[in-house]
Amino acid sequence: MEIRGLSKAFGGVQALNRVSFGIHAGEVHALCGENGAGKSTLIKILAGIIRPDEGEVGFDGRPLAFGDVRRAEAAGVAVIHQESVAFAHLNAVDNLFVGRECCRFRGVLDRHAMARQAREILGRLGEDIDLNQPLEHLPLAQRQMVAIARALLARCRLLVMDEPTASLSAKESKVLFRQIETLRESGVGILYVSHRLQEIFQLADRVTVLRDGCWVSTDPCCDLDETTLIRRMVGREIAARSTARGKGPQEEGPRLTVRGLSRAPMFSDVSLDVYPGEIVGLGGLVGAGRSEVARCLFGLDDFDQGSIELNGVPHPGGSVAASCASGMALVPEDRQHEGLIQTFSIGDNLTLPWLQRFTRRGVLRRSALKTLVTRAIKRLDVRLQSTSDPVSSLSGGNQQKVVLGKWLAGKPSMLILDEPTRGVDVGAKEEVYTLIRELAGEGVGILFISSDLPELIRLSHRILVMSEGKIRGELSGAAMGEEAVLRLALPVGNGQGVD
Q1: Neighbours of 495 (CB within 10 A)
Q2: CATH architecture of 242-327+412-499
Q3: Which terminus of the chain has a smaller tally of CB atoms within 10 A, N or C?
Q4: Contact of 412 with 330, CB cutoff 8 Å
């Protein structure tokens, strides 16, 4: 594929400005840049979702049709988007084959053939998914694996992968990397977008950097180091990565006390404490029960047995309103469906939980709301054109900042963060880390869930590791290593070693 002079503007924002580079057959070509650099806009043009204002794309010597998803797919372009575009109410088989169904005769669907192929392709990815289960009932990671399987089924010649491992565990990521190597060997070109720089250096042959919608550089990966790549992405030096972890537990009682919490069949007998100023990591493989525990703590789901105390006061289950009123906040794993209302404006998303606070005798105090929005945007450095724009107009990383910002406005005493840096660029990630440490320094208790082991180890005072719905152990100090976390995270008695 040869990309020549692509430009695209949305209103007064120039998302792409005369971008040009090429992708070879059998090459993993990384595309790097901060949130808002233009990566997602470029991907949508290649996928046929939007049309550029100018420029052209040649694919195998022929022009690629713009603004037509079916023609892009027919030409051999498959895209795995950062945010799932699956049909949540349909099962895995229907999602894999929608628009390309297998038929026997007279349009009758061959469901047996589709189910067989679905099991085969998901098996290659190491997934054993209930094929009759609607995707909305599956964990986010399994939904992502279904999207990956759909792209592999397309037998494409160019595969575009936008943050494919953002919601995957280390184990699932390794399976995906093996598939990427197989595709590369078969001559498929791969455009790979990731904010996890270790993946870039592990997989990529060449790296193209975009900044503020403009092409910056294209180089062989072997000619770059992490410092140089980051400098090109952000256009400035990033401060040295601190390993300081805030105050740690205080002498006062815990912010959060959980005893014997269970919700069959998701998890059982979960007990933990989080103290003021403490960052407690919750590690484990995807499906271990971490997000399910977070949902029960916040009141999104009921639990079967056990108890929760917040700041020493018994806390009821199944009530989000009670959690908010008591000073608990949750940044969910799935920001697209659970963290934001995509059709609402940026300002409305930031203020939605606190409207009652800013209402007097049935009248909204709009000036106070505007001040709240301004402060949140400034503190989190959200890149936007107008607070009245829909939140869907923001890049993934800036959307994540809005999810964080809406809860920080309420000054919580207990904050649950479920994959808070998913899809966030390296510069913004450091800003989120700094913010987490600042909140801990102010006495906020933080339960921190992450599948990024270096991140989990770097930020946490101690780590609780879950496996098969149970807490298998606690690590602290020098014992908090990646291998130690993985050994506890692996299912009991599976006989596996740690790669």
Answers
A1: 6
A2: 3-Layer(aba) Sandwich (3.40)
A3: C
A4: no
**Span 2-234: which CATH code?**
3.40.50.300
Query: In whole angstroms, what is the distance from residue 133 CA to residue 89 CA?
Result: 9
Structure token pair of residue 373: 């929005």
Interval 356-376: pLDDT, tens: 887 888 888 888 888 888 888
Give whole-number Cα distances, 183 to 154, 194, 195, 277, in Å: 12, 18, 22, 47
Q: Hey, what are 462's tokens?
A: 């101690």
The 10s digit of each residue's pLDDT in 126-173 is 888 888 889 888 877 788 888 888 888 877 899 999 888 877 777 778
Question: In angstroms, rounded to a whole number, what is the distance separating the alpha carbons of residues 427 and 364?
Answer: 36
Length of the chain, in residues? 499
**Boundaries of every domain in the chain:** 2-234, 242-327+412-499
Report the alpha-carbon distance of residue 357 to residue 345 in Å, rounded. Answer: 19
Q: Which residue in this structure is represented by tokens 């079967």?
A: 304
Q: Are 397 and 425 in contact (CB under 8 A)?
A: yes
Two domains, one topology: 2-234 and 242-327+412-499: yes
Nearest to 122 by CA among 151, 102, 101: 151
Separation of alpha carbons 470 and 337, rounded Å = 27
Between the alpha carbon of residue 64 and those of residues 10, 31, 46, 153, 277, the distances in Å are 22, 20, 8, 21, 54
Q: State the Cα–Cα distance between residues 27 and 294, nearest whole angstrom.
A: 40
Cβ 170 vs Cβ 490: under 8 Å: no
Share of the chain above pLDDT 90, in %: 43
More confident residue, 491 or 90: 90
Measured distance CA(260)–CA(305) in Å, rounded: 7
Single pTM value for the model: 0.67
